[in-house]
Amino acid sequence: MLYVDGMNGVIGHPETIQWLYTLIGSKFRLVVKTALKLLLVFVEYSESNAVLLIKAVNAVDMKKGTNGPWSNAMEILSEKDGVDTELLVYTMSLINKTLAALPDQDSFYDLVDCWCDRGAGLRETPQS
């Protein structure tokens, strides 16, 4: 069951979204899986939430000083040892749902270019 008031509280509190994104960089599989699921629910709740997620991801990665955005997601996708297919599926689902909910093609291609520059071989195109 999804509580609308609770989701509106999360939407209005970007630090919560940043915290959830930070958790997908955890070394504990269950924490990562739960954070990914919660972020998926967040992005699916409203199309405008994809933009909020992107802003949160950029804020976290800027604070960490990483070499590009979506570093936590890219670490999951590039993991070679002990590959957990469930985490890969949730990570790619989050990426695809975020791309699908973007409001315009410029945002879509900016994000796809970012991921391709980071080594993710995304081959999706937006639906008009």
Automatic annotation (TrEMBL):
Q: Does the keyword NAD apply?
A: no
According to the record, the signal peptide region is: none
Recall the GO molecular function terms of this protein's record.
actin filament binding
The Gene Ontology biological process annotation of the record reads: cardiac myofibril assembly; cortical actin cytoskeleton organization; sarcomere organization
InterPro entries assigned to the protein according to its UniProt record, in alphabetical order: ARM-like, ARM-type_fold, FH3_FHOD1-3-like, GBD/FH3_dom
Q: Which SUPFAM superfamilies match?
A: ARM repeat
Q: Domain named GBD/FH3: which ranges?
A: 1-128
Keywords of the record: Actin-binding
Keyword Plastid in record: no
Q: What PROSITE patterns does this protein's entry cite?
A: GBD_FH3
Output the Pfam families linked to this UniProt entry. Answer: FH3_FHOD1-3
Q: What is this protein called?
A: GBD/FH3 domain-containing protein
What does the entry list under GO cellular component?
cytoplasm; cytoskeleton
